[in-house]
Amino acid sequence: MYDTESRRRTASVRAARWSATHPWRAIAMWLVFVAACFAIGQAAGTHRATDLDQTVGESGRGAHWLHDAAMDDPATESVLISSRSGALDSAAAARAAADVTRWFSALPGVAHVDAVKHATGGQALLVNVTMRGDPDTAQDRVQPLLDATAAAQRAYPALRVEEVGDSSISKRSMPRSASRSERPPA
Questions:
Q1: Predicted pLDDT at 179
Q2: Smallest Cα–Cα separation from 111: which of 94, 135, 95?
Q3: What pTM was computed for the model?
Q4: Is the CB of residue 112 less than 8 Å from the CB of residue 158?
Q5: How do residues 124-151 score in pLDDT, each as one tens digit?
Q6: Which residue pairs, CB below 8 angstroms and at least 24 apart, start in 161-164?
């Protein structure tokens, strides 16, 4: 029984024996294989997976139906205006919220700016913004909104003016792009 098995060597055993008797050739072949895999991977490129690509089952099918019917939830951003320390200066916060609303409304990538919401206790103001276009690519178009928020922060240094949303978080976690789209309106 052992004689027939020893005569009939598998391909892996033959490859191992050849590698052991020709180590430099085996190493060179592995390096060529790795370089070829790397070159093929670079030539094939990459594809960024979206949230829709990650869906499975019945809920995934429903998400695809909603997407195909153009009923996706739009990309939204929120601007929070609060005090840096102590009580909130209501008048300055109201002016900052009015400026944020006016600046964001003038941006072409903004579909709608909600009315300013006041926090219970009057410690903060919230401005919700709905962006135009595909929510999966909103991170590529959010820079003008970030610029307008930064301009509001510079205009009201006594306040804390911060923006958050899926698009701005994704944008901040990506490497910085070399070009900036548009500046906030004056």
A1: 42
A2: 135
A3: 0.60
A4: no
A5: 999 999 999 888 888 889 999 999 999 9
A6: 161/79, 161/80, 161/81, 161/96, 161/100, 162/79, 162/80, 163/77, 163/78, 163/79, 163/80, 164/77, 164/78, 164/80
Domains along the chain with CATH numbers: 2-44 (no CATH), 76-173 (3.30.70.1430)
DSSP assignments along 83-111, one per residue: ESSSS--HHHHHHHHHHHHHHHHHSTTEE
Residue 98, C-beta contacts closer than 8 angstroms, at least 6 positions apart: 116
Supply 170's token pair: 């994704």
CA distance 36 to 44: 12
The label of the residue with tokens 């919230």 reads: 126
User: Are residues 133 and 141 in contact, defined by beta-carbon separation less than 8 angstroms?
Assistant: yes
- Look up residue 130 and give its two tokens: 């709905």
Separation CA 167–CA 185 (nearest Å): 20
Euclidean distance between CA atoms 157 and 149, whole angstroms? 12
Q: Count other Cβ atoms within 10 Å, centred on residue 12.
A: 8
Q: 121: which 2 tokens?
A: 């206790």
